[in-house]
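Dear support,

We are seeing what looks like truncated structure output for some complexes. This example has two components. We would appreciate it if you could run it in full and send us the complete C-alpha cell output so we can diff it against ours.
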Amino acid sequence: MTTQHQARAGRPRSEKAEKAIIEATLDLIAEGMGVAELSIEAIASRAGVGKTTIYRRWANKEDLVVDALATLREPLPPLAGESVRDDLIALLDVVRREAGQRRARCVMNVAMGETDRSKRVSERFFKLALEPRRVAMRRVLGRGVANGELRPDLDVELGMALLSGAMIWFSKWGPEGDLPEDLAERVVDHALEGLVSRR
Amino acid sequence: MTTQHQARAGRPRSEKAEKAIIEATLDLIAEGMGVAELSIEAIASRAGVGKTTIYRRWANKEDLVVDALATLREPLPPLAGESVRDDLIALLDVVRREAGQRRARCVMNVAMGETDRSKRVSERFFKLALEPRRVAMRRVLGRGVANGELRPDLDVELGMALLSGAMIWFSKWGPEGDLPEDLAERVVDHALEGLVSRR
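Here is the complete output from our reference environment:
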C-alpha cells in the first residue's frame, strides 16, 4: 500500500508515530467505537499526535482504518490434511485462542456491525481477515464429502455455519471466562456425530 | 417502569412525542449507532423534539435506551411439546423470520457490541430479549436427553451453540438476500443427524 510504503521510507520518528496511530485506531475499534463514529480527532488524541500528522499519511479515515485492520491479518494454522476432524479442530481452535484478544474484538465489532456507513470498510476487512479462513474450511469439508468421511448430501455452507457459528456463539454468549481448551474438539465432535441418540 | 407510567398518564400529545422518541432511538441503534455513541441530541433531532421533552420523561440516556429496547420484547413461539425436532425448528425459525428486521439489527448491535461503556444496557437487554429464548431451548434439549431422543452425553450448551450459532452465522455471513424458508429445518436436521457419513 502506498501509505505504508511512504511511512517505511520515512525517518524512524515517523514510523513511531505511524505505529502509535495504528495502535490507537485498533484500540478504539476494539473498545466498541464504531467505524462510522470513529473520528480523526479521537485517533489523534489517543495516539498523542496532531491531526496533521495523520493527514500527512492517510487521505481519510477509511484508508487509515483499512490499513490498521490489515495489520490484524493472521496466517492460517497448519493443516495436516489427513483427517477432516483434525483439520476442522485446527481451524476452529484459532477462534478459541483469539477469543477476547484485541484482534477478535475488532473482528466482531467491524464484521458484526450493521451500519451501512462503514460497509466499504467491513467488506474490505472481511475479504482480508475472514475470507481466507472460510475458504480453508470449505475446502476441508468438501474434501470430507469427496473422500466419504462426511455424508454425501452435506450442505457445506450449513456445516460451516454450525461449526463457526458455535465458536462465535461461545465467544460472545457462553459462560464467562476463558473458553475451555477442548472447545474446538467438542464442537467438532458434536457437529460430526450429531445430537440424536443412536442407541 | 416509572417513566412509562408517567407518560401514559400524560396527554395524547405527550404519548405521540414519547413514541417518536422511542422510534428514533431504535432507528439509530438499528443503523449501527453504538449505545455509547448515542446522544440525547441525536435522538431529539431524529424524533423532531427538543431535548427537554426527552429529559422530562427520562433521567438519562441509559434509561431511555432500556425502555426503547424493552418494546422489542417478543413472545416465544408456541411449542407443540411433542417432538424435540419440531420444537427446535419452531424456536430457530423465529430467528429466520426476524432476520434483517429492525428488531434483529438492534439485537445484533446491542448484544454483539464489545464496549464496556454500554455493558449495563446490554446486560439488561440480554435478560429481557434473549434469555427467555435460551431458557426455552435449553428446556427442549434437556427434554430430549431425558426422553432418549437425544444422546445421553449431550452437552446442552454446546447443542445450543451449534443451533443458534448456525442461525446467527447465516443471518450475518450467509449468502446475500432473504434466508431460505427451510433454513431452520435444515440447520436442525444437520445438527441432529451430524455431518459424518453413516454408510
